[in-house]
Structure formats: structure tokens, C-alpha cells
């Protein structure tokens, strides 16, 4: 009996090892193909880069309805308006903005020649393609977080391999099937997560690797990339706070904060994780929140409200809610009816009051439609509490007092900031996007995106008649005089 049980186990292990080896070989072959194409034509022209960007834009336009349908299938249900607003539009519009600036970005930068005897010498910084860039994409905004980076990767003249999430199976299938009609494999390839792909992908010797996801996975990706000394850009998460000050209109703040918190059912790395506000205004805020959210989503079944991505995430949020409630927290639903729906994996937006400091909602990034509110009496308390933890991906101060806003900018470090709103700094095409500390490293979007995926190569052009003989041994009196002059 035991032998019969052991035989399949050995067989399965052998199959698994074989599949892993095949996956690694397939990825290495793709990288080899792209790198060979890069060496054959390492610096695409401005016209070629613009053509690549227009082709990427054409793919989005021609497939936008199917892209929305695929993402909704991956979620169980995802509001088509949210996909169009947060993914399709930024990708299309961002390409137009990059094309507008690309010629200027590609120009060599002039720099001053420092040594004074180099009359006629020139210094230039030339942005050149790195080669092949790897992109590891999360499930929450899989079009935005794959095609927007590709915009800057292609603008910088590179080739790309893109690994999709295991929670984006329908979308990954669509991209793998349709993208070859737009780009050859030596320019762009997409890969599905079928088990072990992500690990093998992060071990490849890319010229640059971009990862968007959790801090825990980001550490593993960075460790794998370090074996190849592959530079990485990490876009991670963090408990981004909104800070509502006494002078800001309560209703307006509630409308803006709750729009962002309910968008994609809170499954956004840059959403408002929790809210700090004056203790005396909390009850009024809760009343406004109930009215605002119930108007936007009359029932949990609203087609405008998105599902939690999968059963594991759904259970994690429900367990965290129950833990907080058991610890004395008050959970206030903002839509009439049941607090959640097992069949659709939808959770009613909730405000959470009196949150215990040691529970999961307080310690971990929430990534769901739950908004803890913390009261304060002095802003100094807020500053000290935020600074005692990891630096967040964003902060959201709400105040019409310029001095108060500047104080928070000076004293609370974060990846980005939206003042008197939340999230919108991410959608500004000319602003860099990136974290700091545990919320990430490096930037993309805007000019910084082009620079991230370029080698800013310093080049010194010697003047025809310049001489360094005085700097060559044997040193004499002339060298003494020149060095004395240069170091005076």
C-alpha cells in the first residue's frame, strides 16, 4: 500500500521538476532572442520609437473592450468604468504625452568641461537603451502596470519581457494571443504565471527589472536580481494616510477620500489606507460618509462596485474585520444591507473606529474597502505616529493653509503626495512615481521613466590640439606650476 502511494508522489515531483526546467529554458530562450536583437540594432531611431509607441497605443484602442472583459473575468466582476478610467485612459493618454516629449528627452545633454586647459573639448551625456527590461505585474491594475511601463521602456529604446500575475489568467491569455500581431517576440513577450514562472523570471539577468507588488515579494525579487547585479525599480505598498486638518471642508474631504477608498474596492497600493482627523469632527464625517457612499452604490450588487480579487483576499479581509471587532473596534457599514456577499466576494465599504493598535488592520496594508479613522488633538501627534513607522508610498494632507501643508511636506517623508485629494499624483504624466524606504525604490512616469530605462552615458570628446603632457612623468617645473594654479 505504501509503495503504491509513494510512486505517484515521485512521479509528480519529477513532472514538477521537468516543468520548472522547461519554464526556465523558455524564459532564457526569450531573453537570448531579445538580447541578440538588441545587439543587432542597439539604438532605435526617434521614428522607430514613435512607431513602437503608436503600435502600443493602437493595440489598446483596438482591444479595449476585450481588455475590460478579461479583467472583469479575472476579478469575478470589475466595473468597466473603473477599468476605462484607471487603466485604459492613462495608458492611451500617457503615450501621447511621451511622444510629445521624446525628441527632447533623446537629445544629448551638454555639460561643462571642467579642466581649464581642454580648450575645444566637449562633455555630453547621451541617453542610450539599456537592452532588455523585465516587468513583473500585479493583478490590481494589470493593464496600467504593464503597458504604462512599456511606454517608457519603448521610449528609451528597449525590448521587454512581461510576467503577468496568477490572478490575471484571462488577461494574460489575451495578451499572449494578440500581442504578437502588433510586436514580434524579439521586441515584446508576455508570460502567464503557471507556477514557478515568477521565481524563474526574477532570476534572469535582465538589464533592468521593474517589480510592482507587496514588500514581502519585493524583497525576494530584489534578492534574486542581486545575484546578477541587475538594477531594480521596486514599486511596493504602504499604509498611506490621509490627514484631514481642522480648516478643510468636511463634506468635500469625505467626497474625495471615499471616492478613492471605494475605487477598485480599495485594492490600490496608493489608496487612503487610514484617515487622521480632529477627534471632534469624526461623528460628522461618519454621517457624511454614509450618505455619500450609499448614493454612489445603492446596494452591494451595484455594477459600479468591484469584487475582491479572490477567495484568499476575501477571507483575509473578513478575518481582519472580525479580529478588529473582537478587540473593541466599531465597524460601520456605509451601504444598507449585508456587510458582505460570499457568492460575489464583495465587501461593503466600512469605517472602522477605535481600532486596536495590535490588529491586522492597524499593522498591515489593508488593500480593501475598510477605512480606519484615528482622532487627534494636535497635528504633532500625527507627525510622530507616521514617522514612527515605515515611510508610506503616499500621504494626503487636506488643508487650505499653505503653512500647514508645507510643515507636513517637510516633516513626513513619503513616496508621493496629493494635496487636498488622494491618489491623483499617480496619474500626472509629468510627475515621477515611486516609493521611498519600505514603500519602494526608483521612479518611472515622466522624464524620470525615460531616464530609469536608459543608460545616461557620459562621453568626453577630447579637443584636437589639447595636451596632457604636463601631467605625464617625469614631472617637471611646468607641471608644478600648472598643478599649483589648478589647485590654488
Automatic annotation (TrEMBL):
The active site is at 235. InterPro entries: Ald_DH/histidinol_DH, Ald_DH_C, Ald_DH_CS_GLU, Ald_DH_N, Aldehyde_DH_dom, Aldehyde_DH_NAD(P). Keywords: NAD, Oxidoreductase. Signal peptide: none annotated. Residues 16-457 form the Aldehyde dehydrogenase domain. It holds the Pfam family Aldedh. Belongs to the aldehyde dehydrogenase family. This is Aldehyde dehydrogenase.
Amino acid at each position: 500500500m505504501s509503495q503504491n502511494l509513494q510512486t505517484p508522489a515521485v512521479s509528480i515531483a519529477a513532472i514538477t521538476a521537468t516543468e520548472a526546467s522547461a519554464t526556465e529554458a523558455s524564459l532564457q530562450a526569450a531573453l537570448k532572442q531579445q538580447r541578440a536583437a538588441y545587439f543587432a540594432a542597439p539604438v532605435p531611431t526617434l521614428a522607430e520609437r514613435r512607431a513602437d509607441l503608436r503600435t502600443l497605443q493602437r493595440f489598446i484602442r483596438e482591444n479595449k473592450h476585450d481588455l475590460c472583459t478579461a479583467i472583469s473575468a479575472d476579478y469575478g466582476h470589475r466595473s468597466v468604468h473603473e477599468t476605462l478610467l484607471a487603466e485604459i485612459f492613462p495608458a492611451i493618454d500617457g503615450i501621447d504625452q511621451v511622444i510629445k516629449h521624446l525628441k527632447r528627452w533623446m537629445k544629448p545633454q551638454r555639460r561643462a568641461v571642467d579642466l581649464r586647459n581642454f580648450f575645444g573639448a566637449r562633455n555630453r551625456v547621451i541617453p542610450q537603451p539599456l537592452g532588455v527590461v523585465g516587468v513583473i505585474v500585479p493583478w490590481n491594475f494589470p493593464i496600467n502596470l504593464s503597458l504604462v511601463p512599456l511606454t517608457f521602456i519603448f521610449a528609451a529604446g528597449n525590448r521587454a519581457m512581461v510576467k503577468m500575475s496568477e490572478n490575471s489568467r484571462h488577461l494574460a491569455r489575451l495578451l499572449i494571443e494578440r500581442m504578437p500581431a502588433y510586436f514580434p517576440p524579439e521586441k515584446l513577450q508576455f508570460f502567464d504565471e503557471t507556477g514557478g514562472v515568477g521565481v524563474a523570471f526574477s532570476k534572469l539577468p535582465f538589464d533592468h527589472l521593474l517589480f510592482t507588488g507587496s514588500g514581502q515579494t519585493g524583497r525576494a525579487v530584489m534578492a534574486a536580481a542581486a545575484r546578477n547585479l541587475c538594477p531594480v525599480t521596486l514599486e511596493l505598498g504602504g499604509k498611506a494616510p490621509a490627514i484631514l486638518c481642522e480648516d478643510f471642508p468636511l463634506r468635500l474631504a469625505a467626497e474625495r477620500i471615499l471616492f478613492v477608498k471605494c475605487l477598485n474596492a480599495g485594492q490600490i497600493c496608493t489608496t487612503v489606507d487610514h484617515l487622521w482627523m480632529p477627534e471632534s469632527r469624526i461623528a460628522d464625517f461618519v454621517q457624511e460618509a454614509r450618505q455619500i457612499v450609499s448614493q454612489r452604490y445603492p446596494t452591494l450588487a451595484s455594477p459600479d462596485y468591484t469584487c475582491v480579487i479572490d477567495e484568499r483576499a476575501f477571507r483575509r479581509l473578513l478575518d481582519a474585520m472580525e479580529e478588529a471587532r473582537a478587540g473593541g473596534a466599531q465597524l460601520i457599514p456605509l451601504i444598507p444591507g449585508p456587510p458582505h456577499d460570499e457568492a460575489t466576494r464583495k465587501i461593503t465599504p466600512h469605517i472602522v473606529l477605535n481600532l486596536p493598535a495590535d490588529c491586522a488592520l492597524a499593522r498591515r496594508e489593508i488593500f480593501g474597502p475598510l477605512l480606519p479613522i484615528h482622532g487627534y488633538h494636535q497635528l504633532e501627534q500625527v507627525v510622530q505616529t507616521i514617522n514612527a513607522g515605515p515611510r508610506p508610498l503616499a500621504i494626503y494632507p487636506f488643508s487650505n493653509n499653505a503653512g500647514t501643508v508645507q510643515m507636513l511636506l517637510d516633516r513626513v517623508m513619503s513616496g508621493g503626495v496629493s494635496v487636498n485629494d488622494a491618489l491623483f499624483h499617480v496619474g500626472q504624466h509629468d510627475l515621477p512615481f515611486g516609493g521611498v524606504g519600505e514603500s519602494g525604490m526608483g521612479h518611472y512616469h515622466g522624464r524620470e521613466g525615460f531616464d530609469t530605462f536608459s543608460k545616461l552615458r557620459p562621453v568626453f570628446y577630447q579637443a584636437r590640439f589639447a595636451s596632457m603632457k604636463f601631467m605625464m612623468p617625469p614631472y617637471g617645473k611646468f607641471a608644478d606650476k600648472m598643478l599649483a594654479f589648478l589647485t590654488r
